[in-house]
Design brief:
about 280 residues; mainly alpha; 12 helices; globular
Amino acid sequence: MTFIVTLVALLIERFFDWSHLRHWRWYTTLQHTIFQRLPGKSAVIVLAATIAPLLLGVLLIGFLLSGVLYGFALLVFELFVFLYCLGPQNLWADAFAAVNALTQDNAGEAADKLKTLFGITEMKSAQGLHKELLNQIFIQANKRVFAVVFWFVVLGPIGAVLYRTISLSASSAPHDGATQISQNALTVESVLDWVPSRIFSLMFALGGHCSAVLTSFRKQALNGLTHNEDILTNCGVAALADEEKRTLAEDGSIEREAINLLDRTFVIVLVVVAMVALVG
């Protein structure tokens, strides 16, 4: 069932943009409400009080649906949870939109797209913007998709919910107490990202320039929690035939190559998930 859910979810996410159906504002509201109801409590307690009921709810629903309609009801539920925990914004739709905006002669629109879609706020030179977008494509591929896949395979639907809620808390909108909650969530997110970021980076070797990726991976594999993004960007760039050694093209071609690399890598991810499912 794990492979079927992963396959269907990734196909839907790759070819259809259903981001408008994923609403998480209720989660931020819930967290703020719990913070107000627990005055004086630590940010860790508020974070746990927000996430634990959701995990228990998913676990309970999964238990109640097991065996219903020969397991079909559970499969549909897990697929819904998986799809809802991806993103929240669609990686591929955002990447293509950002590339198109960056390659058009409209600096204002490009700046707005880069800020909205990938959080790039510092307007650098054209080379700097292309480099930053390229890096963000690899980072967001892990945060929006692969880390969810990893924790879903390891823990089931509660793993996907755990990762997404922690990630949302780490980037929550400012409100009373949000800073401390975000800092704690960011630490947990770094822990949750440590293994997936390295597995994902290593898979770039199978989808791209193998020797360059392995060289970069060996240098950074054992780095600490603060280097998760570094290994993703360095191995991702290395997979593109070591593009970092020459000037990046400013026509969007390098970003499109990165997207193609991600497509190949996610095919490999599906093969690995299938193998894990067979062994399990």
